[in-house]
Each structure stands twice: as structure tokens, then as C-alpha cells.
Design brief:
Elements lengths: L2 H4 L5 H11 L3 E2 L11 H13 L11 H15 L8 E4 L2 H12 L5 E6 L5 H7 L3 E6 L9 H7 L4 E7 L11 H14 L2 E5 L25 E6 H4 L8 E4 L4 H10 L7 H13 L1 H24 L3 E2 L7 E5 L9 H12 L1 E2 L1 E2 L12 E5 L4 H18 L1
Parallel strand pairs: 1-11, 3-4, 3-5, 5-6, 6-7
Antiparallel strand pairs: 2-8, 7-8, 9-10, 10-13, 12-13
């Protein structure tokens, strides 16, 4: 069997969710919300299922969805995209896989910033590439210019960049975005920009797509996700948006991964991208209230939390919380003894990981947050 997969452990999300089910624990580990989807988009999906085609749609996506994505980005970020610049995929993870396979050849090196979404490294290796990690450090998780330049070598082909960043909840500032752009232009690199959290940006902050920086439109492959925008993670509708010829090459990689995505879900997402702008701000406010509720509860229980400017993830610093055990040990004990599942952030890095940070999902109803905070209080009492 392929050693990449033969030697791979089960995803940390799957592992912690299984433990949550086994111990009847509150699951704050896996990143899915239990609120936030608009009923109108569900109705649109049901209507399309019953009254429209259920056969293969075009591999690159329904024309109305591709047009809706392009129009959405023009309205929100001033980007000039055409329908032919968009390729619809079965979720953002498939989009990432297609972009990596389209970009990386055997022997190429790809830079990632860790902690990082755990699909990045295996997919780079599956394409024959090598991973170059740049470790970000809490509590700021800032990109260091010298570290970035030092990581670039003669075999570097691409940078895989996630903004806003999972698992840290970090929204990178203009200076850091310019560092990425400068490095890509100077060394002629492609940037695969994972921007799935682009609309879950809290506290009135504003997201900037990397492709809008000078010199980046022709070297950026953007990844987007309807699952994140509309809190419908199980739909697995994502897309790649890029100027040609990058978009066309990525679409060719996509056609032999999943080929196409459920047409009724595509039609519903097209409706949401066209008509759902008014849904976004109430959604952001609801996530901000949920974050603040969790932060207040955890601080009241004696935990030190890190700033979360985006996504629906919050990090807790165990060391600063007075707990003398690493994140894996805490996560295991918390789910087994206290009844709450969290994710150890060291699972998001292979080299030099931070081992004193755990991630919690705050995209939950009030009663779930309160139950999770109560269980975290119990965990601290047991483990301090």
C-alpha cells in the first residue's frame, strides 16, 4: 500500500469526535457549527432536488454558480473574475487537492505555515512534493519575514497560505500579506490561498483576498467554501477561483478527483451567493456572541484564551492556565474524565509544534457552550 497513507494516523478531528461519542462528551473538537444556516438556502436545495436535473452537471460547475461566485467576489472585494475563472469542487479540501496536484511536480518544495490544516502535508507528498514548515508561535502567530525568506530554496514551487487561519483564528494583517506577495513575486512562486473563512471575520475587521495585491492575480489560486460561508459544512461545495491559465490546469486536476458536485446543492449555493449578502453580518454577529460567551466562561474557569479574530475556533494556552501537561495529555483526559472533546494543536504540525495549546469550536448554541465550559472547569479541577 502507499506508505503515505499506510503510515498515516486517523485525522485528529475524527479521533476526537469518536472519543466524544464513546464518552458521551460535549464535542468542541470537530469544527462544525450547530447554527447559522439560512432556511431559504435549504428550501432552494430541496426545490432543485425535486424540480431540476439530478444528473451529472458540467465538471467545472453549474454556470449559474460560477457566475454567482464571480459576482459575489466583485461586490465584496472588488475582484474582476469571470465564470470561466471559477471551478466548483466537492468541498474546499478537494479544491486544495486539485490545486496541489495541478501545481506541484515530483521534487518540488511547498511552504506551509504551521499549525496548519492537516490535509496540506499529505496532499503535497501525494503529488511528489516536499513540505517546508514555517512554525508560527503563540500568542501572536505572526509571520516572520526572515523565516519566510530562509525557507525558500531553488526547489520551492509554491506557498500554501491559509487566511483567516485555522486553527489559530488569526486574520493576517496587510504587512504579512505583503510579505507573502513579495516572496512569491521575487521567487516566481504560485500561492495556493486557502481563504475559506473569508466571511467569518469578527469585530468589524475586513478580509483582503491575496489576489487583490499588486502582482498577485496571475499567481494566486484561491480556495472558497460554501460550507463555511453558509454554515453548511456537510454539503461539501467549494471552488477554485483564479485567472487563466492556472484555473484551467486546476480544473483538469479536479475532473479526475470527483468530476462534479451535487447539482441541487450547487443551485442552492448559487442562490445564496447572489441573494444572501444580507445574511452575512447577522451570521458574523452570532459567531462573535458565541465566541464572547465561551471566552467569558473559560476565563471564569481559570483558563487563558488567545485572541480569535476570525473562524469559529478559539485557542486555550494550557501553560498560561496553570496546567503542567501537554495538549495531547490534556485532550485525552478532558474527554475521558471531564466529558469535553477539544483538539490538541500539536496535531497541526510535524516539526517543532507548540504542545501547550488546545483548540475549541465556539460555533455552538448557548447551551452547548455552557455545557462545554462546565466540563472544561471540571477538567481544570481534575488536572491542575
Amino acid at each position: 500500500m502507499n506508505p503515505i497513507y499506510e503510515q498515516m494516523q486517523t485525522s485528529v478531528f475524527e479521533r476526537m469526535s469518536a472519543l466524544a461519542a464513546k464518552h458521551s462528551a460535549v464535542n468542541l473538537g470537530q469544527g462544525f457549527p450547530d447554527f447559522g444556516w439560512p432556511n431559504e438556502i435549504l428550501d432552494a436545495a430541496a426545490d432543485a432536488l425535486k424540480n431540476a436535473s439530478n444528473q451529472y452537471p458540467p465538471s467545472r460547475g453549474l454556470p449559474q454558480l460560477r457566475e454567482a461566485v464571480a459576482g459575489h467576489y466583485h461586490r465584496h472585494f472588488g475582484q474582476t473574475l469571470r465564470a470561466e475563472d471559477v471551478c466548483v469542487t466537492s468541498g474546499a479540501t478537494e479544491a486544495l487537492g486539485a490545486c496541489i496536484l495541478a501545481t506541484v511536480s515530483p521534487g518540488d518544495e511547498v511552504i506551509i505555515f504551521t499549525p496548519a490544516y492537516d490535509s496540506y502535508a499529505p496532499m503535497i507528498r501525494r503529488a511528489g512534493g516536499a513540505v517546508r514548515e514555517i512554525a508560527l508561535r503563540p500568542p501572536e502567530w505572526r509571520i516572520d519575514r526572515d523565516a519566510l525568506q530562509a525557507a525558500i530554496g531553488p526547489k520551492t514551487r509554491a506557498i500554501l497560505f491559509n487566511n483567516p487561519q485555522n486553527p489559530t483564528g488569526r486574520l493576517y494583517d496587510g504587512t504579512e500579506l505583503q510579505m507573502i506577495a513579495d516572496a512569491a513575486i521575487q521567487h516566481d512562486l504560485t500561492v495556493i490561498s486557502d481563504e475559506v473563512w473569508e466571511h467569518i471575520v469578527l469585530d468589524g475587521q475586513r478580509f483582503t483576498p491575496l489576489a487583490t495585491l499588486p502582482g498577485m492575480v496571475d499567481r494566486t489560486l484561491k480556495i472558497g467554501s460554501a460550507g463555511k460561508i453558509f454554515s453548511l459544512t456537510g454539503w461539501k461545495v467549494g471552488w477554485i477561483a483564479s485567472a487563466p491559465p492556472l484555473a484551467s490546469v486546476a480544473a483538469r486536476a479536479h475532473q479526475f478527483l470527483t468530476f462534479s458536485t451535487a447539482p441541487n446543492l450547487q443551485a442552492a449555493v448559487a442562490f445564496g451567493m447572489d441573494d444572501g449578502d444580507s445574511w452575512l453580518e447577522p451570521m458574523r454577529q452570532r459567531f462573535a456572541r458565541a465566541r464572547d460567551r465561551m471566552v467569558d466562561g473559560l476565563k471564569g474557569a481559570g483558563y487563558a484564551t488567545l485572541d480569535a479574530a476570525s473562524t469559529y475556533f478559539l485557542c486555550v494556552d494550557l501553560k498560561q492556565s496553570g496546567l503542567d501537561l501537554d495538549d495531547e495529555a490534556f485532550a485525552s483526559a478532558a474527554v475521558e474524565q471531564a466529558g469535553v472533546a477539544v483538539v490538541p494543536v500539536s496535531a497541526f504540525a510535524e516539526q517543532d509544534p507548540s504542545r501547550h495549546i488546545v483548540r475549541l469550536c465556539f460555533g455552538k448554541r448557548d447551551e452547548t457552550i455552557d455545557a462545554g465550559v462546565a466540563a472544561m472547569r471540571k477538567a481544570k479541577e481534575l488536572l491542575a
